[in-house]
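check these C-alpha cells.
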Amino acid sequence: MKKSLLLTFVMLLSSVCLMAQNLKGGLTNVTTLKKPGAITRALTDKYPWGYYEGGEAGTLVGPGTTSTYDICIYVPGDKQFSGATLAGLAFPMMVNDTKQATVWVRNTLQGNNIYQETATSLTYNDFNIIEFKQPVSIPAEGAYIGFTVKTAQDAATIATKQESVPGQTFIIVNGSVYDASKFGYGPVAVLAIVSNIDLQPSAWLTPDKSYLVSKAGKQYEMDAVVTIGSPEEITSFTIEVDNGEKKETVDCTFDGKLQALRTDIPFSFTYTAPSSVTTNNALKVKVTKINNAANTAKDAELTVPLMTVSRESVRHNVGEIIASTTNGNSPLGWAGNEEARELYKEKYIGVVLHQSDVNDPMYIAPSKYFKHGGETQGIGFFLLNRQYSNEGDILCAYLDEVADELPLADITAKAMWTSDDKTAVRITSDVTALTNEIGNMKVSYVLTADELKSLNSSWNQTNKLTTIDQSGDYSQWLNMFLNGGKYGTAVVKNMPNNDVVIATSYDNYLTTVPTIAAMNDGGTASTNATLELPTTSALKNALTTAKKNNNIHAVAIVEDEGGVIINAVKVDISDYDPTGIETVITTADKSVEKTYTIDGRETTAAAHGILIQRLADGTTRKIMKR
C-alpha cells in the first residue's frame, strides 16, 4: 500500500469561512511560467529563491472589485541566508491598467516598508526581474519581500499549483491576510533575488500531512518530496528513516544530474510501522547526505505523527459540498460529487448542503449543520473529511490521495422509519476503536436524498459555466454544464440532485453532538438520534417520490476532537418494524486472512470440509465446503 507524505493543500475550516466572505473562485486557468533556471543564468552571483522549477500559476482569484493586493514571500534570516542581502525580486505581473507595481521589503507582514521602489513597464504572465537600486540586508528574524498592485480584475496570476509550506507565502487583499498554503493553490509566484549568500549543499523535507495511519508491524511504501536549497547539481542523497523502534538508511540515486536550486525531487521509500498499537508513535525522516557529503541543512528532519491500528479497515470519505440553485458556480460541486460517486463507490459519501439562499427549495439553514461560514457560501466549495478543500470539480484529485487511508475507528449503523407514514428516522450507531489512546470522538447524523428534482421554476439551477468550451481535461460531468453540454444553458431545468442534506442531528451552532469518551483498541460505544423530515411545501412532492423509490439514506459520521472526520457509514432505511431494526451495515473488513481445519491446522482457502476462517476484522467463522 502506498501512502503520500505530501498531499495537496490543507485548508482549515476557519480559512474556508474567511475566504468565502472575501474572495470568489472559478475554473482554474493555467499559465506556464518561465522556469527560474533561466533567471538564474541571467543574473551574476545572485540567486532566485521561493517559486521553484516546473510551476504553473493558477488564476481567477479576487473579489472582482477594485482591490489592493500585496503578494509576498518570507525569506528566513538564519541557515544559509545568514548575512545575505535581498538584491531584488522577480514576479509575473497581475493584470492592471498601469502595468506598474510597488516592490518592497518589510520586517513584518503588515508593517511599514523598510525599502520600496516603483517598477514600471511590466509584462503579464512572465517573470519581471526587478533588481533593487539599493540592496537590503536580511535581518536575523527574516524579512518579507513582495509587490503591491491595485486592480479590479479577478483573473490575476497570484498563486502556483504546487505544494506550499505554511508561513512562507502570503496574499493580502484589502488588508485581509491569507496564507497561500491554505488558499487552495500553492505558493505565490514570487522569487526573492538573494546575493552575498554562501550556498552549501543542503536539503530539507516539508510535510503537508498531519499524521499517518498504518497497521502495526506492516511495511508500506511512501511518496515524499525533498527540496534542495543550493545551486549544486545533485546525483544522489541519503535518508534515515526512524519509526521509533529501529532506524533504516535509504540511498536515493538518479540517472543523470538534477539542477538543485529550489528543486523539489519526488522519491519513494519504504517504512515499517512500529509494532505497538497507539496514537503516540512518530515517523522521523532525515536527509543525512547529499552527493555522499554530510547534509548541512538544520531543518533536514521531519517528524510525522504515526498512528498504528490493530487491523486494516475501510475508511469512508465524506465530501461536504456547499451548493445553491441560485449560485452559478454550484455546478462545479455537482460535477465533483457525481464524479466521486461513480469512481469511488462505497468509499465516498456525499453530503451536499444547499445554503446561501432561503428560496432554494433544498435550502437547509447553516444552523442545522456544523459552523462553516454561515450563509456566505454556495460557490462549489467542498470539504473532504473536513481536512481538504477547494472548488468542487476537483474533489476526486483529493480523493485519489486519501481513498486508501486507514481509519482509527470503525462505525456501524442501522436506521428505520419510526412509523408507516415515514416522517422520521431513528438511527443507531456503534463506534469501535482500532487503536489505543484514541481521544474523545463525536458522532453526528445526516439524512440525504437522491434524485430530487422538479419542473417548478424555483428548482432551476443557475449556471455561469456556459461560456467555457468542453475539453478532455474536464470530467464528463463538468462538461455537461459547459458550452454545448447537456446542461450547458444559463438556466438548467429539471436537473437531478443527489446526496442532498434534508435533516441533521445539529440543532444550532452551539449544540454539542453526542460525544464518545476516549477508549482503547477494541472499545465500543453507541449513540443514536431521531431525525424528522422537512415539511416545506417546496420539497413535498420531491420527497414523496424519494421515499417511494427508497432514495433517502442515513449517514453516521464520527469525527475526532479537532473536527476531522475519522470514518462514516451510509445505510438504507428499513421499513417501520415495531419489533426492532435488522439491517446493519459495517465498515469492517470481512476479507479472509487465514483458514484452518477443524483440528486447528492452517490450510488453504481451497480446502474442503469443515473449516474455520479468521477474518481481517479479527472475528472468526465456521464454514462447510463440499
Observations:
- The mean pLDDT is 77.
